[in-house]
Specification:
Number of strands: 14
Distance between the termini: 27 Å
CATH superfamily of the largest domain: L-asparaginase, N-terminal domain
Shape: globular
Number of helices: 9
CATH architecture of the largest domain: 3-Layer(aba) Sandwich
Structural class: alpha/beta
Radius of gyration: 20 Å
Strand content: 15-25%
Largest sheet: 8 strands, mixed
Number of domains: 2
CATH topology of the largest domain: Rossmann fold
Strand order of the largest sheet: 2-1-3-4-5-6-9-10
Bound molecules: succinic acid
């Protein structure tokens, strides 16, 4: 990478680009500020990188769609082969950032750094975290050691791998955590420390980007649930389902009986947990019923991985489990 790297910024909106119009208002609108504003602020602060912006969307990430995911993926993919681009930063709302990050991590090569960044406070809030997170993302993307670590998220001075990133708090600038790996590095506008070496140098994309996203519902466990809690989620074309179970991916007997029936019919059933933290490992019942254990992935990210696998024609239990076991 040259002394002043060329970084492509793909903007999608979110709180990082949001404004309230008054620092004292609680309500705000995401995706109001163009990426040129961040590029201008970074330039004024003397950041040593050539930043070029492109707007993919200007929305709250709750409205993200497979079409926007595809546009992001295709822009990143093209940048991988573009000698004028050294690294990519994606500005994104925090609500679904972990899903976008994992999807891109699974479907893009690792030859150039890709960094997702967001903010928990709008751009005109007192103590906004947006510009700091953005400058941190530029520092990470500019670093010669950033490639080969897969897609990363940069929030609150921490670098978290896409696979590990979780939004764990509804508010507060420290809303993100990494699980099972806490973070893979720390960053400030003036410092960067990696914890360990890149582990995926030169890795090709592991999976094709889905031509279509298969229907994969999430069944959220609750006390007293009955079979209809599963059945109301099913469509004729449902070939995969994620259980957001109690504790270590647990559910009432009546639910496991229903899920076992579905697995016997070829529906891939992944046991994840509604609990924020902790592994869901394989249990004897998984072999008995043909279930898959989500391991370190929470339900929303387990759904993304299962959609990618199904879209790539992978539905055999041991192959699906191997993908959930791969870090
Ligand atoms: C969003 O995800 O777009 C809204 C919340 C945020 O960015 O923090």
């Amino acid at each position: 990478m040259s002394a002043a790297p060329n970084i492509l910024i793909l903007a999608t909106g979110g709180t990082i680009a949001g404004t309230a119009g008054s620092a004292l208002k609680r309500d705000y609108r995401p995706g109001q500020i163009g990426i040129e504003s961040f590029i201008g602020q970074a330039g004024a602060l003397g950041v040593a990188a050539n930043l070029t912006g492109r707007e993919i969307a200007a929305m709250g990430s709750e409205d993200i769609t497979p079409e926007i995911w595809r546009a992001l993926h295709d822009a990143c993919d093209a940048a991988m082969d573009d000698s004028q681009v050294d690294a990519i930063i994606i500005t994104h709302g925090t609500d679904t950032a972990e899903e976008t990050a994992l999807l891109l991590d699974l479907t893009l090569p690792t030859n150039k750094p890709i960094v997702l960044v967001g903010a928990m406070r709008p751009a005109d809030a007192v103590g906004t975290d947006g510009i700091r997170n953005f400058l941190n993302a530029v520092r990470v993307a500019s670093d010669a050691d950033a490639a080969g670590r897969g897609v990363m998220m940069v929030m609150s001075d921490r670098i978290i791998s896409a696979r590990d990133a979780r939004k764990a708090k509804t508010t507060g600038t420290d809303a993100f955590k990494g699980f099972p790996r806490d973070s893979i590095g720390t960053v400030t506008p003036s410092s960067l420390d990696w914890f360990g070496e890149p582990w995926a140098k030169g890795r090709a994309a592991r999976f094709d980007f889905p031509a279509a996203f298969p229907h994969v519902p999430i069944c959220h466990a609750y006390a007293g649930m009955q079979r209809d809690a599963v059945d109301c989620l099913l469509r004729e074309e449902t070939h995969g389902l994620v259980l957001a179970g109690f504790g270590e991916g647990n559910a009432p007997r009546v639910i496991f009986d229903r899920l076992a029936e579905l697995a016997a019919k070829g529906v891939v059933v992944v046991r994840a947990s509604r609990v924020d933290e902790g592994l869901v490992d394989r249990l004897p019942m998984d072999d008995e019923h043909g279930f898959v254990a989500a391991r370190g992935l929470g339900p929303a990210k387990a759904r993304i991985l299962l959609q990618v696998l199904l879209a790539n024609g992978i539905s055999e239990m041991s192959e699906v489990q191997a993908a959930f076991d791969t870090r």
